[in-house]
Hints:
The chain is mostly helical. It is built from 15 helices and two strands.
Amino acid sequence: MENFTTLPELNNTLGNWTDYSIQYKVISSSLLLLICALGLVGNVMVILVVLTTKHMRTPTNCYLVSLAVADLMVLTAAGLPSITDSIFGSWVFGHYGCLCITYFQYLGINASSCSITAFTIERYIAICHPIKAQFLCTLSRAKKIILFVWAFTSLYCVMWFYLSDIQELVYDNDITIISCGYRVPRKFYLPIYFFDFGVFFVLPLLLSAVLYGLIGRILFLNPLPSDPKDKKRKNGQNNHNANDRTSCKNSRHSSSTATSRRQVTKMLAVVVILFATLWMPYRTLVVVNSFLDQPYLDSWFLLFCRICIYLNSAINPVIYNAMSQKFRAAFRKICRCGRKSSDKPATYSVALTYSAVKDTSMVESTDHFTTELEELTVTDELLSDQKMMFPDPCVYGKVNFSDA
């Protein structure tokens, strides 16, 4: 991440150049290589899971794919060049490499911020405005929003082709170092940075804090109704057994939807919190250096800031695996660790969700089919539990999954 450091002004003395210590080179290159390798594998798996698994192609997961692509861009355009910088201490990719790598660095950073903002707004609409979510939170609309995000950030970052250039820094001990830096003086770059800081960091975090507060109020203070007694009163007494089965299915669906909503929201909230936490050291450093005559450029602290940034791009697949049962099962399938029949739960999940929506059409909004289908998972354990719990009247009565 060459451009994340502040280079000395060319009209000032540079002093004597000293190479990185062997200890720094070994530790920095090893950590950066490990984080980048894990991040590349994890984000590629996220993309493959969503693209190759039909029931995973949902609006929320589309935004996660966009975030994974942006993280891959950060890891390849910023993480890998940082390894060569740690080893050689000089820029080795030439003039055009400086322009392109700088462009893709900022493109990945800005696109990841916009993707996080997009899925936060999508979750807010889906949970707090379920009626509007039926036509706003759709797969086709999500694809259009993602296309707009990448088109906007791609055009916005074009300026870095004109702001970046390589520099030959001649030190007092007659050593020349090639660096990828900024073509314009530092005072002209600061307004651009503060605009980026406000639009792609502060604003998304403030918006996320407000929206997740509203989402939490709905999910944890006003849970979805799950009491089937009111539904029994509305129905007649002629079909008592059928009403019991319907009420039990409605209750089970409502409880599962509420639980899955909380799980997905918690997972996305963790992604946002980590984004804010891991980017904070670098953002704070640049803000502080902007007001200092001699910027603070300790190599170990810069390494810490870089590691936090790359860790943010690499840790999201770990969060999905730890907090999402569907992603965990899909990852196992990709890794050939699951059973060959692992697709069956997804089939039952679709049928159960659609059947429950039909049965509860007079009680709950049908937005669950369009916005919550990705969140309700029927695993092998749940199916096996249903087969064994014969005393349960909801399971003992025959449930026809083929209604869908």
